[in-house]
């Protein structure tokens, strides 16, 4: 009797997230264009234009790679959401799904690395000199990649990610519409892992580092040593970090917990399922937009990049000034020569 009532309750709860396909296709198209342009530009600056590199730029370069890997899979997702069919096979679906989680939690962890690096540089500037090296930064980045891939690859590749839409349909789902059995056996454990390691711990670290840096900046010695300009840059860095972290990642990760509870039937009720299913696509689109916001972090947190851009603009400006001065000099000398030649010709004519 209990099973029948549960079955009836599940039948009554209708899905109300049909709007997600239009939303996904629109937002993902914008993210693909903006994310590709900004991250390719950032990659060019890091690889070709930026001569001076430090620990922060090492973390940023890895963040760019993570963003680009995900952005390049977005056209496949846009095609799927427009046509509501995945014709590219199971392997590409698994790869696309894995790269989504690699990007999201890779971005969270690399942003956390930047925040911790700045915390050490400001709060413990002398003690952290031996720790804050480019070699150690590369080791940390390798550890982040191992950790992220250990969480994302099993999610994408150990599950059957493509399903037929109906018995008589040739259309295929891609990484959605998993059964409650799969949620209980595997996906719920993945959610616990990524929420703890990939979101909660980094969130606490970001908040802790930001509070400690702000307390350090309030000390008179720090103000006298760093000056108002450095303080302003550090404050902008903290604000940008926290805004991007909170705006992009908190809505999705909080809603993901409730979504997992709904899918595993730990949270019952049509109202709860309706609210969670409505919020999920919106929160997912906000999370995906981090590819577009990460380049803002590159600008505000890397003083080296700003100095490099300023140096290039100054060199270009001085070159333009020198070129215009040379052009004016050559033009005036040419006019002077023409004037002299004309005078000679007139004098010759007068003698004739």
Automatic annotation (TrEMBL):
Compartment(s) of residence: Membrane
Membrane topology designation: Multi-pass membrane protein
Alphabetized Pfam families for the sequence: 7tm_1
Keywords: Adaptive immunity, Disulfide bond, G-protein coupled receptor, Glycoprotein, Immunity, Membrane, Receptor, Transducer, Transmembrane, Transmembrane helix
InterPro entries: GPCR_Rhodpsn, GPCR_Rhodpsn_7TM
BP-aspect Gene Ontology terms: adaptive immune response; phospholipase C-activating G protein-coupled receptor signaling pathway; positive regulation of Rho protein signal transduction
GO molecular function: lysophosphatidic acid receptor activity
Record field: transmembrane: 21-47, 59-82, 104-127, 139-159, 190-214, 234-259, 279-301
UniProt keyword annotation of Glycoprotein present: yes
A Gene Ontology cellular-component term: plasma membrane
Span of domain G-protein coupled receptors family 1 profile: 38-298
Entry's family note: Belongs to the G-protein coupled receptor 1 family.
Annotated protein name in UniProt: G-protein coupled receptors family 1 profile domain-containing protein
Protein species of origin: Megalops atlanticus (Tarpon)
């Amino acid at each position: 009797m209990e099973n029948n009532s549960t079955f009836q309750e599940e039948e009554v709860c209708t899905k109300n997230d049909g709007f997600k396909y239009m939303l996904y296709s629109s937002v993902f198209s914008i993210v693909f264009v903006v994310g590709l342009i900004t991250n390719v530009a950032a990659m060019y600056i890091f690889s070709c234009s930026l001569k001076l590199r430090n620990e922060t730029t090492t973390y940023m370069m890895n963040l760019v790679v993570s963003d680009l890997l995900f952005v390049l899979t977005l056209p496949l997702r846009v095609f799927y959401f427009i046509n509501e069919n995945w014709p590219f096979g199971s392997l590409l679906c698994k790869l696309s799904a894995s790269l989504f989680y690699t990007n999201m939690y890779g971005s969270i962890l690399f942003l956390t690395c930047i925040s911790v690096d700045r915390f050490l540089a400001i709060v413990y500037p002398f003690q952290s000199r031996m720790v804050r090296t480019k070699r150690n930064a590369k080791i940390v980045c390798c550890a982040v990649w191992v950790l992220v891939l250990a969480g994302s690859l099993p999610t994408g590749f150990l599950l059957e990610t493509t399903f037929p839409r109906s018995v008589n349909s040739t259309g295929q789902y891609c990484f959605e519409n998993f059964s409650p059995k799969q949620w209980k056996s595997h996906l719920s454990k993945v959610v616990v892992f990524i929420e703890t390691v990939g979101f909660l711990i980094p969130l606490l670290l970001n908040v802790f580092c930001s509070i400690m840096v702000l307390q350090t900046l309030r000390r008179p010695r720090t103000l006298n040593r760093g000056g108002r300009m450095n303080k302003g840059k550090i404050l902008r860095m903290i604000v940008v970090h926290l805004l991007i972290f909170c705006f992009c990642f908190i809505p999705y990760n909080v809603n993901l917990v409730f979504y997992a509870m709904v899918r595993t039937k730990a949270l019952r009720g049509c109202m709860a399922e309706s609210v969670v299913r409505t919020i999920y696509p919106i929160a997912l689109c906000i999370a995906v937009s981090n590819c577009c916001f990460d380049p803002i972090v590159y600008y505000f947190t890397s003083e080296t990049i700003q100095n490099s851009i300023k140096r290039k603009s100054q060199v270009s400006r001085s070159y333009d000034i020198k070129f215009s001065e040379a052009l004016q000099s050559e033009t005036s000398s040419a006019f002077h020569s023409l004037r002299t030649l004309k005078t000679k010709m007139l004098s010759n004519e007068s003698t004739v």
